[in-house]
């Protein structure tokens, strides 16, 4: 029997789940079992957990459906536990180094107590000092093991479930489980404290709790706040049945109703049903009030008396008076120019146009990427929708004749932004854009993240300076309703980089549909448009942007490279879109395709890809054609830009670190041999999970047509997909 069983629910925390699991597995004390609780065998968390289970036999995952909630997940983990003591760790929290060794040592001193309470640290997700709210509660407890009556204010209801270790036999013998769904920690903590006979404390931080940027789920508005009354009634009823003595009942009663009054005094938590909540709370208060109980002093004492009297009107008035002093008007970022602000404000008063969709790609660079692919599919599946693309003035001439557009900053631009029900972007709309109730914002992204993104950039000074205010970035993220991903890696990283309350759609990238729908004729047409000579093999060279460099520098002398690899090859140069200035580079066997509208067309034309760390490799991998990574400055890039994984350990093909090595892999054909194909196959298995040619259809049906998730076409398994054929005959797996 292991010393500890550690139960880790994972719903909604996939972005930081690895950190939680690592914090357990990296403990110096190793006598434990780790029980991650996943939504389902095919959930994003299950993919992460499966890798841990393969590497460490102490990891024994179980499943609990999302409908069972946090309580159901913890109860499932508890039933599977075999350890002497059980700990509950949320999936976005971590055990501090040495935590299990400290718990084991303390239990050795106190014996196997029913409950060992310990301190925890609440860490702000961004700014602010960590807090240790458990320390004052534990400060007055005896140093040795004790009965709960010796520390009556340690009721358990004011501590989260993950701030204690529980003797498993104690929980099972007394049939204690997590009750309900919301506020389950209140009910569980109360039931535990009522039944425990021997308790001890450890005045050491064991768990580091990361406060969510979007706040605690329990703080969101909704009728789930009535469940706080359910938990209060459950604990106080059980206390009465057990005949809890007055010296223990009074602090329990006071702590429970402190939480109830906090909710009753917070109008945003109860958008409706406030009077009913207050009336029920008043009945519970009078029914369970201990004999001789005296309310606390000050404003809280006044609230106690009003609750006892059932005086809702007076309570509401007191609440309004307390809030009036602190109320301030939040500044709203608005478009520049008085006339523009007035026009936009007028349009915001008009009803949403339920059939209007606004698209934007790369801050207005034109008709391209995922927004363009979704727009094209919407024309087919939802012809009733009016679609408007937002473009910069310089991109107007590149717009297809049959696509309606509005120039960014114009009167039409602000009008459609104010009225559109659906807004689709692969970057972000301007700060001044207001998220209206009823509107739907879809973030499509424009690549799979290798480099650090969003909030994760903050620790890299050069990148953070170029990004600007992370706070303003995340204010834009808060407008998202949906976020699109093409693989589980992206699902996990986007959740970390863009913490918010949006829903993740694992539908694939619509722009990549063409890699499975294009024909040999399409490939031949694109190659002719780009000027690829017949009979030549086209190598696409696509380096990424360096935040720490000024201007475009390829890092490779393409003329010398062409000379070294021989006459069979031509190079398609596609610089990062930051450097698209409409001018050509190179000549002869070097064809500059940087200004070509469609990155997908360029990839279709290429027989192989040469890149450094550009996300184009993840998209190109769908074609199952050779990829070579030219990593001449990987160590510098990784240090200054930050990356999510070591590309040198998980490459999509051959790696070259010098121009000579790069030329050699093409001269000897090793860029496309069986070893390179095996690397590519593993890369595709990890990063081409959801791209199958029907991503745009899934998005249109779910987001623009509002169809339920079960009606969306399922993703075709990778082995059954047939990529567009290459023009040249290469050695392929």
SSE diagram, text form:
Blueprint (H helix, E strand, L loop, with lengths): L3 E6 L4 H12 L6 E7 L5 H12 L6 E2 L5 H12 L4 E4 L4 E3 L3 H12 L4 E9 L10 H6 L24 E4 H6 L10 H12 L3 E12 L15 H16 L4 H19 L9 H15 L9 H12 L2 H13 L13 H12 L3 E8 L8 H13 L4 E6 L13 E3 L3 H9 E6 L14 E4 L17 H7 L2 H8 L4 E3 L3 H10 L5 E3 L8 H4 L2 H11 L6 E6 L15 H8 L3 E5 L16 E3 L6 H7 L2 E4 L4 H5 L6 E4 L3 H8 L12 E3 L2 H9 L6 H14 L7 H10 L29
Parallel strand pairs: 1-2, 1-4, 2-3, 6-8, 9-10, 9-12, 10-11, 12-13, 13-14, 14-15, 16-17, 16-19, 17-18, 19-20, 20-21
Antiparallel strand pairs: 4-7, 5-8, 6-7
Q: Fraction of residues in helices?
A: 25-40%
- Strand content bin: 5-15%
Give the radius of gyration: 30 Å
The strand count comes to: 21
**First-residue to last-residue Cα separation:** 48 Å
Q: Give the CA-based shape.
A: globular
Q: What is the number of helices? A: 27
The computed structural class is alpha/beta
What strand order characterises the main sheet? 3-2-1-4-7-6-8-5
Q: The biggest beta sheet, please?
A: 8 strands, mixed
> What is the typical, i.e. mean, pLDDT?
89
* Unreliable residue stretches: 325-333, 578-586, 729-733
